[in-house]
Automatic annotation (TrEMBL):
The protein's name: FAD-dependent oxidoreductase
Keyword Oxidoreductase among UniProt keywords: yes
Residue ranges of every copy of the NADH:flavin oxidoreductase/NADH oxidase N-terminal domain listed in the record: 10-330
Native source species: Oceanimonas smirnovii
Pfam families: Oxidored_FMN, Pyr_redox_2
SUPFAM superfamilies found in the cross-reference section: FAD/NAD(P)-binding domain, FMN-linked oxidoreductases, Nucleotide-binding domain
Family under the similarity heading: In the N-terminal section; belongs to the NADH:flavin oxidoreductase/NADH oxidase family.
Domain FAD/NAD(P)-binding: 377-640
InterPro entries named among the record's database cross-references: Aldolase_TIM (IPR013785), FAD/NAD-bd_sf (IPR036188), FAD/NAD-binding_dom (IPR023753), NADH:flavin_oxidoreductase (IPR051793), OxRdtase_FMN_N (IPR001155)
Amino acid sequence: MPAYPHLLSALDLGFTTLKNRVIMGSMHTGLEEERGGVDKLVAFYRARAEGGVGLIITGGIAPSVRGRLAPNAAQLSFCWQLARHRKLTTAVHEAGSKIALQILHAGRYAFHPFAEAPSAGKSPISRFSASAMSERRIRRCIADFADTASLAKQAGYDGVEIMGSEGYLINQFLCSRTNKRTDAWGGSAANRHRLALDIVRAVRARAGQNFIIIFRLSMLDLVEQGSSLEEVIALGQALEQAGVTLINTGIGWHEAHIPTIATCVPRGAFSWITERIKQQLTIPVVATNRINTPEVAEQILASGQADLICMARPFLADARFVAKAAAGMPERINTCIACNQACLDRVFNSKRASCLVNPFACYETELTVTPAKHAKKLAVVGAGPAGLAFACTAAERGHTVTLFEQSGVIGGQFNYARRIPGKSEFTETLRYFTHRLQQTGVTLRLNTRAEVPMLADFDEVILATGVRPRWPKLEGIQHPSVVSYIQILSGEVMPGRNMAIIGAGGIGVDLAHFLVAEPEPSLNDWLQEWGIDRQYRQPGGLMPAHTPEPGRQVWLLQRKPQEPGRGQGKTTGWIHKAGLRHHGVHLWGGVTYTRIDDQGLHIERNGTAECLPVDQVVICAGQEPEQSLNAALEQTGKPVHVIGGAHVAAELDAERAIRQGTALALRI
């Protein structure tokens, strides 16, 4: 019996069979619009198909100019566009998988002046106002979806996914929040459901019966005036009758003030709503959102909550996720940590997506591992993210690598990051590197402080010694109440009851969370904290959020005049700020630090001097490169390479460190 019998079992759809229950969900990579991007996209999809995925869904493709997310966004409406798509489908089919095209109309989420929606208005996430669609435009839109589906079939796609969730056009028609129409396309639930059903019928009529139609159904809108549970069920049943093959789960609108895929979201946090809808349908239903290990996926399927599992970012982290699970080697999976840093944050800034823990993602044609022409004996000093990435990749190429680490564990700053509530996924990255070090044959020397004499026999030395905290010049900085963030996160010093944090960068924000939030809340506690009603008593599934009693008083301070928390990740920064406010953290900007004494931390703010009566002051005022070995090694004349935090410490960046270590290993 396979290790994951439900996950790896085939699914017979009648006219075709999926070889397992794993769907790679839709992800826009930025390659869709990049010059020469089609060949890179082919390599990206081929790698995932070769890695064992049963069905791949492409990034969202617009059915019309008005439906594009941005002026240059990908669209499939003309025969001359088929050639590039045939490259994708051929590559996936040759690798033994199936592929569906996602058809996405942005509606009022469009970032261009031709945006259209059921009713005129502007969304909170776009600066452009959408115009209300006329009856003629609605009819044209239905035909556009059908045309795109027909072209997709001609291009060799096995099916399409119709995007009906996340607040895009179809979802906008479904909800009274954005549908204020008084004609046959608005008002009653039946009228609001009409566009979705007419699109499905039109697609089925054009594409024929032997063609997969997936509908991504918004099962939980998480916005005011969203759909009710009864409306979601009724639409799901109507979609089934209209000819849909699979129902995929959609959770939340992009404008919702609730996290749905970030690290802080518990694994499988929304499988309960998938189960509830599945009970009312007979066609297969797909679970999604924060499913990142084969164990979680198998449990959801085995418990009957869903028939298939849809994962997107886990296939950025590891193209061979399914193959490793099937081989009984889940410990070798490079697990998605749901940070959004290199994927969604990049895409929303019009950059190519990749992955913090896997820099090869979307760079398959540019970052390639080839045998080293001349095998070298390499010393790596420091087993943080940069050092680990370099050591494993260099050893994989055939170099003899010894990795020195002065502490008793690998991981560097990751060992502090994984203690932050909502960031325990970093533990998975360290598990992955532990096994990869063994797999690639790296010699690991823990509890060893590398000195110049012991590095003499190596051909080259790679310094990945990381960072050390920067201490500001401040009267009273030597006061007993002053500690570093490392002392708190390592457990060397117990936190006080009233605390001030000097520095509100990423580490300061993380430390504030560590001081006030539950380390690992239960699913029910997390749902209550964010105001998600598991009983679904109100449209949209919202309820008043539970406000906890603060366990300690915390001030998060910075010199910059704006409120702390800005400058964090585009898709996660708001989550951090909301969480800190929820737990009563004081977020103060424009602070001048005067001195520290027995009374507390003396500051000036808004022209007024005051003293914060804290019993602890934590320094998070940035980092400095740890370069104590540099000068001594340079005097030996030995080639030395500096990477990671030891190279640039500003705003410690694990993505940059892993990418830099990998890139050096590929060319050394």
